[in-house]
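Handover notes (outgoing to incoming on-call)

Open items:
1. HNH endonuclease: sequence verified, structure written out, both below. Nothing else pending on this one.
2. Nothing else urgent.
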Amino acid sequence: MRAFHVAKARAKNCEVLDDLTMDELRVAYRFAQKRGCVYCGEKIGDDFSVDHVIPMSKGAHNSFWNIVVCHEKCNYRKHNKPASKFASKEKMDEIIFDMIIRSPYHEEAITNFLSTGEFISSEDGKALRDIEDRGKVTKDG
Ligand SMILES: [Zn+2]
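HNH endonuclease structure tokens:
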């Protein structure tokens, strides 16, 4: 899967935690095949790409909870904007629902990340450190 390796390379470039597995991407891809592109709703084919709801350039992870599958052209149009500044209200509700289910962070943290476009506020930074301290995630993925 080309999109998988592209996401891995970008995560390395952005120096963010990267724990996305191929199996997780397959799950996200199956969702997208049923629902359509997470941004435009049209059918997804082989030309999909992995997008990060909170951009990796803002420090967010290449992790199952932060990815959506969309068209390459939609990802290109979205560019570095957070998903909340690009997706429709309806699509964004679906995205947030998926994130909350998959994420180690609580709902308030997710909505805070999305409204600020920044991954780590001081409070959420503490939550992240707590999780790291418990050894659930490591900086090396
Ligand atoms: Zn699309």
